[in-house]
Amino acid sequence: MLSTQNEIRNKVNIENCRKDFPIFNVPDNENLVYFDNASTTQKPHKVIETITDFYCQNYSNIHRGLYPLSLNATEQYEHARINIQQFIHAKSNNEILFTKGTTEAINLLAFCLSDNHLKKGDEIIITILEHHSNIVPWQVIANKLGIKLVFIYTNSDGDIDLEKLSEYINNSTKLIAITHISNSIGTINPIEDVIQMAKRKNVLVLVDGAQSVGHMPIDVQKLNCDFFVFSGHKIYGPTGTGVLYIKEEHVEKLNPYQTGGNQIKTVTTHGTVYADSTAKFEPGTPNISGFLGLSAAIDYVNTIGFDAIMEHENDLTKTILKRLNTFPPILIAGNPKNRSGIISFNIPGIHPMDAGILLGQKNICVRTGVHCNEPLMTHLKLDGTIRLSIALYNNYNDIDLFIEKLAWVQDLLSRQK
Ligand code: PMP
């Protein structure tokens, strides 16, 4: 009974949640179709108000002052860490590092591992589905240290080859860095299988959760990954916030990435002893308001609940795919076994950029190009795609408007030929 009531409440919430996002209430944005959520999401009132309230009523620095304003700011900031810890089911708040975003989190990790753990002759496995930010940092340290970077490819559907992955793991393999969800074709990777495979051989695993964390529940303990990263702005939180989860056993072993104040036990004229906790990775004054905003975004997602979010986003995804498939000449990139609400496609004879500009003129926001996935595009023999990606505030009206304007674009551009 209770669960039915919750289901009804959640359904009502998700249908009404668009009004929680002020951008959709601006008169000029009445027919705004925002389908660029893989790039960044819109912000609910709750997040904006949390940030404004902090600056208007409670602002001060953290971890330093002993006056009430500062103590209160510190308490809120550390509460945000616990909230995020619980959200991804980490064992301890000492496993949650605050960063500027996914990109910084991966760079931080690459630097720390290159400093402490990796050496010449080691191998790192990544997949062809990775965003540039989960390729370039590994290329840099591979070149610097003489490490071999091994790519796992997908079939034409966009699914990675698990057998190949298992063959590629050898005694030199030190790390597998893999995206949870492809940011351009929507593949949901079988990360549970990948992690199990890696753990049998004592290999560390980093999961790039930038595209999953806002769309499905994450349990880093159940996954048993060593590292998990995400960006706050892709889960209705502010830009300039990100998280690096580090399994506790690794926290102590890694040296800091940057150095300065707020991360130390003692500094003398002879040297420095760093803090034992994650504080050693967070020198300097952080983005305090940003993490309060991210915590508010997580509260917002929690009140709606992933059951409702996943059901709604799955229904929308199926509908979009069905409508696109009845749009005769459209070619959808990939057909993964397990997919998210990120869909890439092309209309033969029409450049994705032309389509993107024209759709933009009709208030339809989609992304066009290679989506920071150039190696994947090359592998799939694509120059680029039109990508739409959904979030909890999208609805069926968005799909109708999108399909209507897409037909207009197609008609207009084919008549010009
Ligand atoms: N990884 C994936 C899978 C992404 O989709 C993105 C952003 N598109 C990133 C990493 C980088 O995130 P950010 O720009 O927030 O650092």
Tell me what the structure shows:
By secondary structure, the protein is α/β, with parallel strands linked by helices. It folds into two domains: 14-41 and 305-415, Aspartate Aminotransferase, domain 1; 48-302, Type I PLP-dependent aspartate aminotransferase-like (Major domain) (Aspartate Aminotransferase, domain 2). 41% of the residues lie in helices and 15% in strands. The protein has helices at 2-16, 45-58, 68-87, 102-116, 136-145, 162-168, 191-200, 220-223, 248-251, 288-304, 306-325, 352-361, 374-379, 396-415, and strands spanning 33-34, 96-99, 123-127, 148-152, 173-179, 204-208, 227-231, 242-246, 264-267, 272-274, 331-332, 342-346, 364-365, 367-369, 385-389. It has a seven-stranded mixed beta sheet, sandwiched between helices. The chain has a four-stranded antiparallel beta sheet with strand order 11-12-15-14, covered by helices on one side. Strand 3, helix 5 (136-145) and strand 4 form a beta-alpha-beta unit. Helix 2 (45-58) packs antiparallel against helix 10 (288-304) and helix 4 runs parallel beside helix 5 (136-145). The protein is globular. It starts with a helix and ends with a helix. The chain binds 4'-deoxy-4'-aminopyridoxal-5'-phosphate (PMP). 4'-deoxy-4'-aminopyridoxal-5'-phosphate is lined by residues 38-39, 101-103, 131, 133-134, 179, 183, 208, 210-211, 231, 372.
The largest sheet has its strands arranged as 2-8-7-6-5-3-4
The radius of gyration over CA amounts to 22 Å
CATH topology of the largest domain: Aspartate Aminotransferase, domain 2
CATH superfamily of the largest domain: Type I PLP-dependent aspartate aminotransferase-like (Major domain)
Form type? globular
Helix run count = 14
Biggest beta-sheet profile: 7 strands, mixed
Alpha-beta content class = alpha/beta
How many domains, as an integer? 2
Mean pLDDT: 94
- How many angstroms separate the termini? 60 Å
Number of β-strand runs? 15
The CATH architecture of the largest domain would be: 3-Layer(aba) Sandwich
